[in-house]
Sequence to fold (325 residues):
Amino acid sequence: MAVLGIESSAHTLGVGVVEGGRVLSNEKSMYHMGPGGIIPAKAADLHADNVGPLVSAALKRAHISVRDISAIGYTKGPGLGPCLRVGQLAAETIAAHSGIPIIPVNHAVAHIEVTRSMFGARDPLVLYVSGGNSQILAITDSPFRHYHVYGETLDIGVGNMLDNFARAADLDPAWGSSVERLARGGRYIQMPYTVKGMDFTFTGLMTNASRLLGGRPSRDVAYSLQETCFSMLCEATERALFLTRKSEILLSGGVAQNSRLRAMLESIAQSHGIRAHAAPNSLNADNGAMIAVVAEKYQEKGFRFPSKARGIDQRYRIDTVEIGW
Ligand code: FE2
Fold:
């Protein structure tokens, strides 16, 4: 039977249907940010308006009805509280009428697992890069099977930094792709580069890049910002690769849509004689199918989530989440 997934952690509301790991539908609607960024209550209001029609659209596109659904996954966190709550309430409402089991899903696990299952990656080193977080991870079985964090940002996510820079440079949303476009053909300017072991920080870099705007061509600043932050991520990833000796690298999360980062990671993989994988952009952007993919795995492994294990958690860390596969 099919599994429904609802993603609502930030500006995107996504509803997807999967069956046997295959994506049958993946519908979405977006809250369009103004220059001030996302206003959580307004995004949540929009998600609340859209979630009913979007669930219907996802079922219709998958050519199924609610009776064909065996589980409903929703994003428990991390994310914005009001937005997360919409997804949870939608899942609880559908389940209340149908008795379908509800499965809370960690957003980062979903980003990674949709890529991992697509490529059949058994035990990869993962670079997870999003607005809210940036981490280097791999699966460990001790003390329970989960994604261990080898390195991570000590301040803000790389996507958040790129978004902030794009706002300072007055670029169009979606900001990540706007920065990538602006950076084409730019020339390198030296910028602060902060890697501490396998951890990294981005706020100093962001402040420096924003200050350079106006004094230097914005194309050069955008180019240098990308080169610097992606080099930091790749240096830390390569260090983790030496440590863990993994034979595959997996790139996932919203910033995995950036072609320059993909190329840099690919060249690291090539130099080590291993493979690098990144999903198509539609699955790296926030979406409902990735939530359904994880919910289906939990269901197959017989996990049950009573109401006290559900709810939302705005700071839901990936290394606290048991994965049973
Ligand atoms: Fe995300």
